[in-house]
Design goal:
Order of helices and strands: EHEHEHEHHEHHEHEHEH
Distance between the termini: 12 Å
Bound molecules: 2-phosphoglycolic acid
Largest sheet: 8 strands, parallel, barrel
Oligomer: single chain
Structural class: alpha/beta
CATH class: Alpha Beta
Strand content: 15-25%
CATH topology: TIM Barrel
CATH architecture: Alpha-Beta Barrel
Helix content: 40-55%
Length: about 250
Protein backbone atom coordinates (compact mmCIF):
# COMPACT_ATOMS: atom_id res chain seq x y z
CA UNK A 1 0.00 0.00 0.00
CA UNK A 2 1.24 3.50 -0.84
CA UNK A 3 0.91 5.67 2.24
CA UNK A 4 -0.65 9.14 2.21
CA UNK A 5 0.44 12.48 3.64
CA UNK A 6 -2.61 14.73 3.34
CA UNK A 7 -2.70 18.39 4.33
CA UNK A 8 -5.82 20.39 5.17
CA UNK A 9 -5.33 24.15 4.88
CA UNK A 10 -8.80 24.82 6.32
CA UNK A 11 -9.82 28.49 5.88
CA UNK A 12 -6.24 29.63 5.33
CA UNK A 13 -4.38 30.79 2.25
CA UNK A 14 -4.63 33.21 -0.63
CA UNK A 15 -2.78 33.04 -3.92
CA UNK A 16 0.41 34.23 -2.19
CA UNK A 17 0.51 30.92 -0.29
CA UNK A 18 1.08 29.00 -3.52
CA UNK A 19 4.80 29.75 -3.07
CA UNK A 20 4.68 27.05 -0.37
CA UNK A 21 3.46 24.58 -2.98
CA UNK A 22 6.38 25.35 -5.27
CA UNK A 23 8.81 24.93 -2.38
CA UNK A 24 7.21 21.62 -1.34
CA UNK A 25 7.28 20.18 -4.86
CA UNK A 26 10.87 21.23 -5.39
CA UNK A 27 11.99 19.69 -2.10
CA UNK A 28 10.01 16.46 -2.66
CA UNK A 29 9.99 15.67 -6.39
CA UNK A 30 9.43 11.94 -5.94
CA UNK A 31 8.38 11.02 -2.38
CA UNK A 32 7.84 7.36 -1.48
CA UNK A 33 4.30 8.23 -0.36
CA UNK A 34 1.34 10.03 -1.88
CA UNK A 35 1.29 13.76 -1.12
CA UNK A 36 -1.99 15.70 -1.14
CA UNK A 37 -2.93 19.24 -0.16
CA UNK A 38 -6.53 20.39 0.34
CA UNK A 39 -6.60 24.20 0.05
CA UNK A 40 -9.71 26.36 0.32
CA UNK A 41 -11.99 25.93 -2.69
CA UNK A 42 -10.85 29.29 -4.09
CA UNK A 43 -7.35 27.88 -4.58
CA UNK A 44 -8.09 24.37 -5.88
CA UNK A 45 -7.75 25.20 -9.58
CA UNK A 46 -4.67 27.38 -9.09
CA UNK A 47 -2.97 24.82 -6.88
CA UNK A 48 -3.80 22.02 -9.32
CA UNK A 49 -2.23 24.08 -12.12
CA UNK A 50 0.85 24.76 -9.98
CA UNK A 51 1.12 21.06 -9.10
CA UNK A 52 0.85 19.80 -12.66
CA UNK A 53 3.77 17.53 -13.49
CA UNK A 54 4.79 17.23 -9.80
CA UNK A 55 4.10 14.53 -7.20
CA UNK A 56 1.54 16.74 -5.44
CA UNK A 57 -2.17 15.99 -5.68
CA UNK A 58 -4.88 18.48 -4.78
CA UNK A 59 -8.15 17.93 -2.94
CA UNK A 60 -11.19 19.76 -1.63
CA UNK A 61 -12.23 20.17 2.01
CA UNK A 62 -15.94 19.45 1.58
CA UNK A 63 -18.50 18.89 -1.16
CA UNK A 64 -22.26 18.92 -1.53
CA UNK A 65 -24.09 15.61 -1.88
CA UNK A 66 -25.75 16.72 -5.13
CA UNK A 67 -23.97 17.20 -8.45
CA UNK A 68 -25.63 20.57 -9.17
CA UNK A 69 -28.67 22.64 -8.26
CA UNK A 70 -30.06 25.47 -6.16
CA UNK A 71 -27.59 25.35 -3.25
CA UNK A 72 -26.08 28.82 -2.95
CA UNK A 73 -22.50 28.82 -1.75
CA UNK A 74 -22.02 25.07 -2.04
CA UNK A 75 -19.62 23.19 -4.30
CA UNK A 76 -20.17 19.77 -5.85
CA UNK A 77 -17.71 16.91 -6.10
CA UNK A 78 -17.95 17.20 -9.87
CA UNK A 79 -16.86 20.85 -9.69
CA UNK A 80 -13.86 19.93 -7.56
CA UNK A 81 -12.94 17.19 -10.01
CA UNK A 82 -13.32 19.65 -12.87
CA UNK A 83 -11.00 22.10 -11.07
CA UNK A 84 -8.28 19.44 -10.84
CA UNK A 85 -8.96 17.77 -7.49
CA UNK A 86 -8.46 14.02 -7.06
CA UNK A 87 -9.84 13.76 -3.52
CA UNK A 88 -12.10 15.50 -1.04
CA UNK A 89 -12.30 15.52 2.76
CA UNK A 90 -15.80 14.83 4.07
CA UNK A 91 -17.11 14.88 7.62
CA UNK A 92 -14.24 16.81 9.17
CA UNK A 93 -15.10 17.47 12.82
CA UNK A 94 -15.16 21.22 12.14
CA UNK A 95 -17.92 20.61 9.55
CA UNK A 96 -19.72 18.22 11.88
CA UNK A 97 -19.60 20.92 14.60
CA UNK A 98 -19.92 24.21 12.66
CA UNK A 99 -22.55 22.91 10.22
CA UNK A 100 -24.15 20.15 12.32
CA UNK A 101 -23.35 17.54 9.65
CA UNK A 102 -24.71 14.11 10.49
CA UNK A 103 -23.30 10.70 9.57
CA UNK A 104 -26.05 10.36 6.96
CA UNK A 105 -25.02 13.64 5.32
CA UNK A 106 -21.35 12.69 5.40
CA UNK A 107 -22.24 9.34 3.80
CA UNK A 108 -24.14 11.12 1.00
CA UNK A 109 -21.16 13.44 0.41
CA UNK A 110 -18.73 10.51 0.34
CA UNK A 111 -20.93 8.69 -2.18
CA UNK A 112 -21.11 11.84 -4.33
CA UNK A 113 -17.32 12.19 -4.18
CA UNK A 114 -16.76 8.58 -5.26
CA UNK A 115 -19.36 8.91 -8.03
CA UNK A 116 -17.44 11.95 -9.35
CA UNK A 117 -14.20 9.96 -9.42
CA UNK A 118 -12.72 11.50 -6.27
CA UNK A 119 -11.20 9.69 -3.32
CA UNK A 120 -13.44 10.30 -0.30
CA UNK A 121 -11.42 11.05 2.85
CA UNK A 122 -13.98 10.32 5.57
CA UNK A 123 -13.13 11.83 8.97
CA UNK A 124 -14.23 10.42 12.30
CA UNK A 125 -13.17 11.04 15.89
CA UNK A 126 -14.34 11.33 19.46
CA UNK A 127 -14.60 14.43 21.64
CA UNK A 128 -12.67 14.72 24.87
CA UNK A 129 -15.83 14.10 26.91
CA UNK A 130 -16.53 10.94 24.91
CA UNK A 131 -12.97 9.67 25.48
CA UNK A 132 -13.14 10.48 29.20
CA UNK A 133 -16.40 8.54 29.39
CA UNK A 134 -14.70 5.51 27.83
CA UNK A 135 -16.85 5.76 24.71
CA UNK A 136 -14.15 6.25 22.04
CA UNK A 137 -14.58 2.95 20.15
CA UNK A 138 -18.33 3.15 20.48
CA UNK A 139 -18.42 6.66 18.96
CA UNK A 140 -16.01 6.04 16.10
CA UNK A 141 -17.61 2.66 15.37
CA UNK A 142 -20.96 4.39 14.95
CA UNK A 143 -19.43 7.15 12.79
CA UNK A 144 -17.66 4.60 10.61
CA UNK A 145 -20.82 2.54 10.16
CA UNK A 146 -22.85 5.61 9.30
CA UNK A 147 -20.43 7.62 7.14
CA UNK A 148 -18.55 5.11 4.99
CA UNK A 149 -20.16 4.02 1.70
CA UNK A 150 -20.66 0.25 1.58
CA UNK A 151 -19.38 0.14 -2.02
CA UNK A 152 -16.02 1.73 -1.10
CA UNK A 153 -12.77 0.22 -2.35
CA UNK A 154 -9.14 0.76 -1.45
CA UNK A 155 -8.92 3.14 -4.41
CA UNK A 156 -11.95 5.27 -3.51
CA UNK A 157 -11.82 5.52 0.29
CA UNK A 158 -9.46 6.91 2.91
CA UNK A 159 -10.50 7.04 6.56
CA UNK A 160 -9.00 9.67 8.86
CA UNK A 161 -9.15 9.14 12.62
CA UNK A 162 -8.97 12.57 14.21
CA UNK A 163 -9.71 12.87 17.93
CA UNK A 164 -11.51 16.23 18.17
CA UNK A 165 -9.54 17.19 21.27
CA UNK A 166 -6.22 16.64 19.47
CA UNK A 167 -6.98 18.98 16.56
CA UNK A 168 -5.00 22.20 16.75
CA UNK A 169 -4.22 21.68 20.43
CA UNK A 170 -0.72 20.23 20.38
CA UNK A 171 -2.08 17.24 22.31
CA UNK A 172 -2.16 13.72 20.87
CA UNK A 173 -3.37 10.35 22.13
CA UNK A 174 -0.69 7.96 23.35
CA UNK A 175 0.86 5.62 20.81
CA UNK A 176 -1.04 2.74 22.46
CA UNK A 177 -4.33 4.63 22.14
CA UNK A 178 -3.72 5.32 18.43
CA UNK A 179 -2.80 1.66 17.92
CA UNK A 180 -6.03 0.50 19.61
CA UNK A 181 -8.23 2.74 17.50
CA UNK A 182 -6.54 1.92 14.19
CA UNK A 183 -6.68 -1.85 14.78
CA UNK A 184 -10.36 -1.45 15.66
CA UNK A 185 -10.97 0.60 12.50
CA UNK A 186 -9.31 -2.00 10.26
CA UNK A 187 -11.45 -4.75 11.76
CA UNK A 188 -14.69 -2.78 11.51
CA UNK A 189 -13.90 -1.73 7.95
CA UNK A 190 -13.18 -5.35 7.00
CA UNK A 191 -16.56 -6.36 8.41
CA UNK A 192 -18.18 -3.60 6.35
CA UNK A 193 -16.43 -3.73 2.96
CA UNK A 194 -14.59 -7.03 3.04
CA UNK A 195 -11.10 -7.74 1.72
CA UNK A 196 -10.78 -4.26 0.15
CA UNK A 197 -10.39 -2.90 3.68
CA UNK A 198 -6.81 -4.19 3.82
CA UNK A 199 -5.78 -1.60 1.23
CA UNK A 200 -7.72 1.39 2.56
CA UNK A 201 -5.37 4.04 3.95
CA UNK A 202 -6.18 4.77 7.62
CA UNK A 203 -4.81 8.19 8.51
CA UNK A 204 -4.19 9.61 11.96
CA UNK A 205 -4.90 13.33 12.34
CA UNK A 206 -4.58 15.80 15.21
CA UNK A 207 -1.44 17.80 16.03
CA UNK A 208 0.85 15.81 13.71
CA UNK A 209 4.19 17.61 13.36
CA UNK A 210 7.61 16.72 11.95
CA UNK A 211 8.74 16.03 15.53
CA UNK A 212 6.09 13.38 16.33
CA UNK A 213 5.43 12.00 12.83
CA UNK A 214 7.93 9.13 12.88
CA UNK A 215 6.62 7.53 16.07
CA UNK A 216 3.02 7.86 14.90
CA UNK A 217 3.85 6.35 11.48
CA UNK A 218 5.45 3.35 13.20
CA UNK A 219 2.06 2.36 14.64
CA UNK A 220 0.43 -0.66 12.91
CA UNK A 221 -2.50 0.32 10.67
CA UNK A 222 -1.44 3.98 10.55
CA UNK A 223 -1.03 4.51 6.81
CA UNK A 224 -0.40 8.24 6.84
CA UNK A 225 -1.64 11.48 8.33
CA UNK A 226 -4.17 14.23 7.86
CA UNK A 227 -2.33 17.39 8.84
CA UNK A 228 -3.81 20.80 9.58
CA UNK A 229 -1.56 23.53 10.95
CA UNK A 230 1.71 21.86 9.95
CA UNK A 231 0.57 21.56 6.31
CA UNK A 232 0.64 25.33 5.77
CA UNK A 233 4.43 25.57 5.57
CA UNK A 234 6.39 23.58 3.03
CA UNK A 235 9.20 22.87 5.50
CA UNK A 236 6.84 21.41 8.12
CA UNK A 237 4.71 19.39 5.71
CA UNK A 238 7.85 18.29 3.89
CA UNK A 239 9.22 16.97 7.18
CA UNK A 240 6.08 14.88 7.62
CA UNK A 241 6.30 13.65 3.99
CA UNK A 242 9.91 12.65 4.62
CA UNK A 243 9.00 10.79 7.84
CA UNK A 244 6.23 8.89 6.05
CA UNK A 245 8.48 8.09 3.10
CA UNK A 246 10.98 6.59 5.53
CA UNK A 247 8.36 4.64 7.54
P1 LIG B 1 -4.02 19.94 13.18
O1 LIG B 1 -5.41 19.67 12.40
O2 LIG B 1 -2.96 19.17 12.46
O3 LIG B 1 -3.82 21.43 13.06
O4 LIG B 1 -4.22 19.48 14.58
C1 LIG B 1 -5.71 18.39 11.91
C2 LIG B 1 -6.99 18.41 11.14
O5 LIG B 1 -7.95 19.08 11.56
O6 LIG B 1 -7.09 17.76 10.08
Amino acid sequence: MRKLAAGNWKMNGTAAALSEVAALCTAHPAPACDMLLCPPATLVAQMAAAAKGTALQVGGQDCHAKASGAHTGDISALMLQDAGATAVIVGHSERRTDHAETDAQVLAKAEAAQAAGLVAIVCIGETEAERDAGRTLDVIGTQLAGSVPAASTAATLVVAYEPVWAIGTGRTPTIAEIADVHAFLRARLTAKIGAEAAGVRLLYGGSVKPSNAAEIFAVPHVDGALVGGASLKAADFGGIVAALSAA
